[in-house]
């Protein structure tokens, strides 16, 4: 379901960012775009609202894998009261971090697929966000010889790539 009033949502994000950046003293500028036209390499991500940051403190947003950038995005999602199933309707980016991460995930999915084909064994990615898991699932959706699933709970959820007809062997009882 689309964001019902995108201009109003963009104004709320602007108010939030003015408050946060004003209080923290971060030297950052941002641009909020409603229904942005994105380049082809971002085909798997079609946010209705995109916020792009720039400025001398950009590196701070991207430390630890973009932790602060994701935190700001999460706060904005909460302010807009977006349900988790709608989080992909809005995206924050800085210095093309998101585009590079998408490409990294697509390449990693390809490497995992080759490993599974070669070994016949499942491959489990490190835990990642639902948005990143979605990218891996999409990257492998046309691989007819493989299947993907998300496994784990909460922040420990990860993508597992299986050979299409893989059946786990039943656990053998241990003898004491």
Index terms:
about 180 residues; alpha+beta; GMP Synthetase, Chain A, domain 3; Ribosomal Protein S8, Chain: A, domain 1; 2 domains; three-stranded mixed sheet; three-stranded antiparallel sheet; elongated
Q: Could you explain the architecture of this structure?
A:
With 176 residues, this protein is an alpha+beta fold. It has 2 domains: 6-95, GMP Synthetase, Chain A, domain 3, CATH 3.30.300.20; 102-163, 2-Layer Sandwich (Ribosomal Protein S8, Chain: A, domain 1), CATH 3.30.1370. Helix content is 42%, strand content 18%. The chain has 4 helices and 6 strands. The protein has helices at residues 6-24, 58-79, 97-119, 130-139, and strands at residues 29-34, 49-54, 90-94, 123-124, 146-151, 158-163. The strands form 2 sheets. It has a 3-stranded mixed sheet. The chain has a 3-stranded antiparallel sheet with strand order 4-6-5. Strand 5 and strand 6 (158-163) form a beta hairpin. Helix 3 packs across helix 4 (130-139). The mean pLDDT is 89.
CATH class of the largest domain: Alpha Beta
Largest sheet, order of strands side by side?
Answer: 1-2-3
What is the rounded distance between the termini? 56 Å
SS-derived structural category: alpha+beta
Distinct helical segment count: 4
Mean pLDDT level:
89
Concise overview:
By secondary structure, the chain is α+β, with helices and mostly antiparallel strands.
